[in-house]
Amino acid sequence: MMDAAVRTFGRRGYQATSMDEIAELAGVSKPLVYLYLHSKEELFTACIRRESEALLRVVADAVEGDGPAEERLWAGVLAFFTHTAERPDAWAVLSRQARAQGEPFATEAERMRERIIAYVGRLIAAAAREPCDAEGLAQALVGAAESLANWANGQSGVSPERAAGTLMGLAWRGLADLAPDLSKSLSTP
């Protein structure tokens, strides 16, 4: 039932999805859907929570360990892109649908985002050779990852490895490698 709900919400959006559609796709009766989850709002919230926890678990498992922080960050980024590519409907629920519907759904999605930012911030701080604004960099990296996942899921032929490599290339090398004159203008007050 939850898989059917995620698929339908992810593809059609919260407003356009009916409980009848979900019940039909799940192969159960509509009263059974209401027996377990009393309303469309409760079902959508349960989908957001389940998919948030699944994504967090994948990222957390990837970054845990004793290896160098930059390798753990790479593993987490790759796990994120692999998960969002393998579960595009779940990613659509978390990245677009939950936020587009406002409260209380947006808060559920934001909780997941803040936990990922905390993981990334700790890894950036551990990998940095000099003091930096790890929290700000984590916010930027996670925002870029979210945007890149939306783009990658809408393109054919963009693998999780390519998306992760693009993000990490930007994060580690910055734009200076792409536009050498940019570093001069950024260092000039």
Radius of gyration of CA atoms, rounded to a whole number: 19 Å
Distance between the termini: 58 Å
Helical stretch count? 10
Q: Please report the total strand number as a whole number.
A: 0
Helix content: over 70%
For the sheet with most strands, the description reads: none
Strand content: under 5%
Structural class: mainly alpha
Order of helices and strands: HHHHHHHHHH
| Overall spatial form | elongated
Secondary-structure blueprint of this entry?
Layout: H1 2-12, H2 19-26, H3 30-36, H4 40-63, H5 69-86, H6 88-100, H7 105-127, H8 134-153, H9 160-173, H10 180-187
Helix pairs in contact: 1-2, 1-4, 1-6, 4-5, 4-6, 4-7, 5-6, 5-7, 5-8, 5-9, 6-7, 6-8, 7-8, 8-9
Tell me what the structure shows:
By secondary structure, the chain is mainly α. 77% of the residues lie in helices and 0% in strands. It contains 10 helices and no strands. It has helices spanning 2-12, 19-26, 30-36, 40-63, 69-86, 88-100, 105-127, 134-153, 160-173, 180-187. The longest helix has 24 residues, at 40-63. The model is unreliable at 185-189 (pLDDT under 50).
In brief, what are we looking at here?
The protein has helices at residues 2-12, 19-26, 30-36, 40-63, 69-86, 88-100, 105-127, 134-153, 160-173, 180-187.
